[in-house]
Amino acid sequence: MKIALDAMGGDFAPQAAVDGAVMAAQQLNGAAQIVLIGQEEAVRPLLQQHGAAAADLIFIPATQVIAMGEHPAKAYQQKQDSSIAVGYRMLHAGELDAFCSAGSTGAMLVGAMFSVKAVPGVLRPAIANFVPKLAGGQGILLDVGANAECKPEMLEQFGELGSLYAHYVLGIEAPKVGLMNLGEEEGKGTALTQAAYQLLKVNPHVQFIGNIEGRDLFNSKADVIICDGYTGNVVLKMAESIYEILNEKKMHDPFFDNFNYEAFGGSPILGINDNAIIGHGVSTPLAICNMLLQGYKMAESGISDQIKSTFKS
Amino acid sequence: MKIALDAMGGDFAPQAAVDGAVMAAQQLNGAAQIVLIGQEEAVRPLLQQHGAAAADLIFIPATQVIAMGEHPAKAYQQKQDSSIAVGYRMLHAGELDAFCSAGSTGAMLVGAMFSVKAVPGVLRPAIANFVPKLAGGQGILLDVGANAECKPEMLEQFGELGSLYAHYVLGIEAPKVGLMNLGEEEGKGTALTQAAYQLLKVNPHVQFIGNIEGRDLFNSKADVIICDGYTGNVVLKMAESIYEILNEKKMHDPFFDNFNYEAFGGSPILGINDNAIIGHGVSTPLAICNMLLQGYKMAESGISDQIKSTFKS
C-alpha cells in the first residue's frame, strides 16, 4: 500500500512535509509505504538529513509547484508537472492508494474532479472535517467548503457519504445523521434545509435523526452533521479559532485539544473515485503525519469502493 | 423613562423575571422605572417578597401567557391580553421606552412586526447578538435567527442597522462592518454573499472592510458581523455551547465568560420603530437584569430614532 504526500504543499513545506512523512513512515512501520512527490533539489537534501529513518520513503520528482495564491483550475491545467498534478495522475493510474496535500485546497479539489473524478451518481463531492465529541471519539461535519451553494439533493448525499465514512473509517456501527439547522422542529430553516429534511427523512441509507442546532456539534446527538459548505466552513474556522484562543491562554483540556487541526491532520474529499485528503495550510510535521495515517486508514477501509458500490445502485 | 419586562417570559418565570427586575431597578437607581407585565396572582406575591426593594416597580396586569410551544402568530393574535401583546401595545402607545422578554422569540418577533412595526425602508428587521472581542469590548453579529433566508439587500441593511447600533449604543466611533464568508477574497462565497459584497462596497453609510471568516468573530477585524439568520443562529448556538462546555469543565477566563448569554442578557430586534429585546429562554435573574439595563441603554441612546432618520433619507 502506498500513501503519497505532496512534499511542496503547506506554508512550512517542504521541511514540515518531509519531517511529517518520516514520522508517519515510522508509525506505519512497514504497513504502508510513504511516497513523497516534489522538487528534487528541495526534497532530496531533507530526506538525506533523516538518514536511515527516510530509507523506506519513495521519492517521485515533480518540477513544478502550485502556489497558494494561484487560480486553482488554471494552475492545475498549466502545471502538469506540479506535485499535485503528478500525485493525482499516479492516484488515478492506481500507483497510489491515497494522496494527501497541505497545499492549495482549490487545486486539490480541481485535481480530484479532473483526474480521479466524482463517483458516478455523486452530484458534488464534499470536504469532510472531524468534530470531537464530548463523550469521546469523533463525528464528521460536511461540507466544510467544497460547495458554498448546495441543492437539497446534495445535502442528502452528504448524509450518505458521511455515513459511509463514519461507518467504514471511524467504525461507528449505525451513524446518526443530523441536519444543521436553526431549530429542531421539522419545517424549521431555509428552503434548502426544509427540502433536504424531507429527502433525508425517507432515505433508507441513512439513520436520519432530524435537525440539530449549533449547540449540538459536540454532543452525541449526531455522528454525521450535514450542512452547506458555506456554513460548514464558518463552523470549522470558528472552532479552529476557539482552539487557538484557548491555546494562547494556556487553557488545556483533552477535549478542546481535539479542536486542534493537527489531531486529525486533514479533511478527506468524499465522493471521488479514490482517497484524497486536504491538509491545513499551516500544517506542522505532526499534522502531516496524522494526515498520512488518515490516508492509510481510508485506503485500508476500502471506503472509496464502498462509496462507489453504494452510489452505483 | 420606563423599561418594561414580560414577567411571564422564560423558563424560570415569573420568579427569575421578578428577581431580575428588582436587581435592575436597584442598579438603575431611579434613572428609569421598571415596569413588570404579567399575571397578577403570579407576580404580586413575588413583588411583595422583595418588600421595599420592589416599591418603585410598576406592575401592569396581563391575564394571558404565550407559551414557548405555541404558534407565534396565532398565539399573539388570539391572546391579546398576554404579557407580550400588552407590552407591545404599551410600547406602541408610547407608554414604554423599551420592552424586554425572555419568552417566545417567535411571538416577540410577530409582536414587533404587528404592533410597533418595521421602520419604513427597512426590508426585514434582524436580531442582533453580542460577540465578545479578544481585545476587549464587544461587537455585534446579525442576523441570528429572525430571517433564515436573506436577500443581498437585507444583508446590506443589516450592515447599516448594526453600524448604527454599534455607534449609538456601544459607542464605537466608526464601526467596521465585515461580511461573514468562507474566504476573504472578493468574489468568494455564495450568490448571496457575492451580491451583498457588491452592495456593501459602495454603501456610503457603512465602513465595509470586506469578507471575514469564522476565525475572525472574536478578533478586531470587524465590529459588526453580517450574515443570514440561519448562519448567525448556528454561530450563536455554537458559541453558547462552547461556554457551557468550558463552564462544566470549570475552565474560567474573563474572555470566555463573556460568551455567557447572561453577560448581555438579550438580543435587540433592530429595524423596528421602538426598542425591543429578546432574552434567552433559560434566563436567570442576572440575565434579566442585564437585558433591562440594555433596554435602558438603547432607550437612552435614541437608537430607534437614529434608525428611523437614517432609513427615511
Explain what the structure shows:
- Two copies of one chain form a homodimer.
- Chain A is α/β, with parallel strands linked by helices and 313 residues long.
- Chain A folds into two domains: 1-122 and 271-313, 3-Layer(aba) Sandwich (Isopropylmalate Dehydrogenase); 125-261, 3-Layer(aba) Sandwich (Isopropylmalate Dehydrogenase).
- Chain A is built from eleven helices and eleven strands.
- Chain A has an eleven-stranded mixed sheet with strand order 3-2-1-4-11-10-5-6-9-7-8, with helices on both faces.
- Chain A is globular and about 60 Å long.
- Chains A and B meet through α8 of A and α8 of B.
- Chains A, B: One of its GO terms (biological process) is phospholipid biosynthetic process.
Average pLDDT value of chain A? 96
Tell me the span between the first and last alpha carbons of chain A.
28 Å
What oligomeric state do these chains adopt?
A: homodimer
Structural class of chain A: alpha/beta
The CATH topology of the largest domain in chain A is what? Answer: Isopropylmalate Dehydrogenase
The gyration radius over C-alpha positions of chain A equals 19 Å
The greatest interface between two protein chains, and residues involved on each side, is: A-B, 41 and 43 residues
Order of helices and strands of chain A: EHEHEHHEHEEHEHEEHHEEHH
What's the number of extended β-strand segments of chain A? 11
Q: Report strand % of chain A.
A: 15-25%
* Strand adjacency order, main sheet of chain A: 3-2-1-4-11-10-5-6-9-7-8
Count of spatially separate domains of chain A: 2
Keywords (chains A, B): Acyltransferase, Cytoplasm, Lipid biosynthesis, Lipid metabolism, Phospholipid biosynthesis, Phospholipid metabolism, Transferase
Subunit structure (chains A, B): Homodimer. Probably interacts with PlsY.
EC number (chains A, B): 2.3.1.274
Subcellular location (chains A, B): Cytoplasm
